[in-house]
Amino acid sequence: MAIDVLGGVGFSSDELEGFSKLDPANAFGTQFEGDARAASRFFAAGQALIERLPPRPSRSPSEQAAAEALHAHLRATRRAFLRRHAAEVYSTLTDGRRRFVRVEELVYRAAEVVPGLAPTRQQVTAERQHPQKDKEGYEVDQGVFLSYVLSDPLAGGHLVHAMLRPRPESLDLLAEFQSKGRLDVGTTTVERRGRVGYVLHGNPRFLNAEDDSTTPSLEIATDLVLLDPAIEVGVMRGKVVDHPRYAGRRVFNAGINLTHLYHGQISLVDFFVVRDMGYLHKMYRGLSGAEFWPNEIETTDEKPWIAAVEAFAIGGGCQLLLAMDHVLAERSSYFNLPARKEGIIPGVSNMRLWRFVGDRAARQAILFERQFAADSDAGRLICDRVVADGEMDAALDDTITALLGSGVVSAAGNRKSMRIGQEPLDLFRQYMAIYCREEAYCHYSPQLIANLEKNWNAAARTP
């Protein structure tokens, strides 16, 4: 770290020298407990310096440069610690991998076991009171931590398995769902109609965009469809929205709620990571078993999924289509991944989209905003059947009848067999290791704010 960057913002040379001497990065060895204590002392000293600076919106350019230098130095030491001890931290947090701990809880347990390695729940809660541009960026350290855990084959494989387990809330609601055949979970509705389970996604004020509130409700609904033995196939569809332009129409999915993102209401872990390792991955791969055997081939309990796209599948909506077994789309609908204009990484699409449309078209979509009309040659590589506007109900009935009429006994085996060559579990684990780190930095990039203000007029919108 360049000490001179910190010299003009109120820190004495003695305390800066003392802080530098505490850095244990070059002395880390093989002793986890000793390295953890030394790292935590250094993290605490660095955090104390950051907290002596004014809040981010009130900082001068030199004060902000000092804060960024401190964060960078602390993160370099966190990386040095995690290179050696990520697997040991994970083992400690999960009782030697005997317990399955979801990522939402894991990141906060890490802050307790090695103080300063990741932010506390209180730090992240306090950050949420600010617009994205005014946050300190503590969540970045959650992404870095998860990246190193997922980079370890054993720890990362165990975590992927943990995120494919049913949520506790889902198990609590299963009996009620089986009895009633319909539940409202937040703005998501899950219904059983005969042998079909419907996940109806809703967020009507925001054209069925996704945010922190929809992620758990969509995962619970997905769990219930997969858990109910009376259901043989799942269907995902959007609810009717109240937007004047689409009033009275169903809309499939408008992607991430960009207004919430701009105003600091989208969580790195609770939204980005949980979404892709949770309900979307469960639709693609199913639910994992009660035990983790690292060398065992996939044994997930899964069912085929159908998507019914009306109006559009934007961003995260398009990501969902890449996990489906069959996609119906209205003739006037379209799909896109406007990640460049938003300044984010479009979930697992970078790993999956090219398998549908080819490498060139995938790069055009992700890097240059290419849009796919459903009723086009490229669009038909993403959807299986184009349906006349207003005729989705009949088309769905026909598709479901055809699928169930020939039986779905072999569906799980065929899905697994196709995935072996396309996306084995270990490939997903490696991708998520990169994604957690890179999305963390994107989430707190000044370019994200600039993009949202330029392309979304986000500053003028009310969350």
Notes on the structure:
- This protein has 20 helices and ten strands.
- The protein has about 475 residues and is of the alpha/beta class.
- It folds into two domains: about 5-165, Methane Monooxygenase Hydroxylase, Chain G, domain 1; about 170-400 and about 440-450, 2-enoyl-CoA Hydratase, Chain A, domain 1, CATH 3.90.226.10.
- The strands form two sheets. The protein has a seven-stranded mixed β-sheet, with helices on both faces.
- Strand 1 and strand 2 (about 190-195) form a beta hairpin.
- The chain starts with 12 loop residues before the first helix and ends in an 8-residue tail after the last helix.
Give a short overview:
By secondary structure, the chain is an alpha/beta fold. The protein has helices at residues 13-22, 32-52, 61-93, 103-113, 121-127, 139-151, 153-163, 168-180, 214-227, 258-262, 268-277, 279-285, 316-321, 339-342, 349-357, 359-368, 392-405, 411-422, 425-443, 446-455; strands at 182-185, 188-193, 196-201, 233-238, 305-309, 312-314, 326-330, 334-336, 371-373, 385-387.
